[in-house]
Amino acid sequence: MLQERTNAPAAEAAYPELGLLIDGDWLGAGDRAGQEVVNPATGAVLGQLPHATPADLDRAVAAAERAFASWRVSSPMTRSAVLRRFADLVRENAEPIARGITLDQGKPLAEALAEVRFSAEHADWHAEECRRIYGRIIPPRDPRVSQSVLREPVGVCAAFTPWNFPFSQAVRKVCAALGAGCTIILKGPEDTPSAVVAIGRLFTEAGLPPGCLNLVWGEPAEVSRALIEAPAVKKVSFTGSVPVGKRLAALAGQHMKRTTMELGGHAPVLVFEDADVEAAADALAAAKLRNAGQVCISPTRFYVQRSVHDRFLDRFAARLSAAWVGNGLDAEVAMGPLCHARRIAAMDALVEDARARGASIATGGARLDGPGFFYAPTVIHAAADDILAMREEPFGPLAIVTPFDSAEEALRRANSLPFGLAAYLFTRSADTAHAVSHGLSAGMVSVNHFGLALAETPFGGVNDSGYGSEGGVETFDGYLSTKFITHLHAAP
Question: Is 93 exposed, middle or buried (CB count within 10 Å of its CB: 0-12, 13-18, 19+)?
């Protein structure tokens, strides 16, 4: 049985004041329209988030363009020092930042703390690597000629970040842009704004010059169009759903803006009969519970070799059904609420479709009673590949477990969707690991563990899951242009 959840944490936490950050100034509601920010665990209103006016957006673009003139030629050591100081401040303020994330996003406090501290590692990594953005010398064919390649910051960037990891996703983009010598306008998630406000405050404290980082909020379609169409904006970075990403990429393409797109996934998991089945089930259950499944690389489609399918299903479903679901401020909670009511409706639609098509529910399959947006961890099995949950990313605490007979079959089914972000593989065979990891159509493949999203490793997808990287040395590629200089010198 699912553990009974609670909604009243032992100690409530104060929610931070919200605002816009433009050219170093914090702007409150004033006569601006805005929206309520709601605690998904209780339904209580946490605060009011002001929306940027068209004049605010124009001012943010102008501030970023003005700041770029000096930031682009700043010493890499200066940029590194600001990023390093920001990382230190993140660690010093990790607990209040994490509490704000739990209040407006819902994830357990331990997960929120891990997100914040992990983000400090990303800032540290960018602080080091931005000092190593090197050009190169190309040997000339003529001894009178010199040939060099420079890597220069592209200019003002517009970034759009999601609500599921509001701190880490924003930190990735901001640190890459600033480290490369760009300035940035960030539209964070209106549902979960406290983390992005914290980023703005800490960068200001870290000594970042005014205008280098600007924070705006508002109706997503209106803000994205205004920023992408602004002539001063040269680069667009987006993390979010495939449909929205395609629209923004198309809009950016009309204006010849370079883009990085980290879009949705529907991560397959292949569990072979020679794997440690119980260990795999336990690890995958923990991964599925993380952030209530609201993770772009969350394992969702579980293909388990037929001979061990029932063992895996029983163990996996038992682990999920035993999870304590409740308010993320409670220390014993394993999974918090979904971020908003839209995710509850999406879960219901997927489960109803699966039932209508003859699938079975091993555990969960319903919203939990009481206030807040809680949904029981759910396992669907005995399902055909044409159920909606097999074709659309659940983005919630839902997994589909289905048997396969051969590696060829498993690869064909795993690669049958247009998504290609992450994939997972469990086997003790080196030959199987090699063949299947190379055969999976995904930007990232993790074998026998969950080794993705480190600061020093690439993070990105293929096909409908986007392009470009939000990690590793590749992350700077989207924020730098290449300039070739050839110089004919006077004859000796």
Answer: middle
